[in-house]
Amino acid sequence: MAALLQAARAAPRTSSAALDLIRAQPNQYIIATLGGRKHILAPRDLLTIPRMPDVKVGDVVLLDHIHELGSRDFTIRGKPTIPTTKVQVQATVVEHTKGKMESIFKKKRRKGYRKTITHKQPYTRLRIGDIEIPSPFASTGSQVAASATSASAAP
């Protein structure tokens, strides 16, 4: 417990050390840009954004404009974004839906012109997946294992 408090007080020197501290925390969040706006997102959140025309229900979208990654005790901010090699978040398209009926009333003074336009705004709903912070040791270990298997298969 004392070691954890000591680690919380000392600021990490490298981004990989900061990522390790965030990875050790139970809950993480991100701030990402989707649909032209920034959203604070956590795993398993349901997000409604303006319609994404090029995706279908069930498609998985990789969030690549992540501005901030954090937990209760630690935060990493990108300048302007965090690279996808450091943090990966996927979102699944749950549905394409429409909002409530909106009415727009137009008129011109003293001309007798009145017009009512109604429409429903289209939206896309996304389910946010887990926040994955790849370990630098896991990626090198898999590369070493892959090179070892290819070397043993070569002769």
UniProtKB/TrEMBL annotation:
Keywords: Ribonucleoprotein, Ribosomal protein
GO MF: RNA binding; structural constituent of ribosome
Keyword field contains Lyase: no
SUPFAM superfamilies: L21p-like
Pfam families in the record: Ribosomal_L21p
Gene Ontology CC entries for this record: mitochondrial large ribosomal subunit
GO biological process terms held by the UniProt record: translation
Coiled-coil regions listed: none
PANTHER family, sorted: 50S RIBOSOMAL PROTEIN L21, LARGE RIBOSOMAL SUBUNIT PROTEIN BL21M
Family: Belongs to the bacterial ribosomal protein bL21 family.
Designated name of the protein: Large ribosomal subunit protein bL21m
Lineage: Eukaryota, Fungi, Dikarya, Basidiomycota, Agaricomycotina
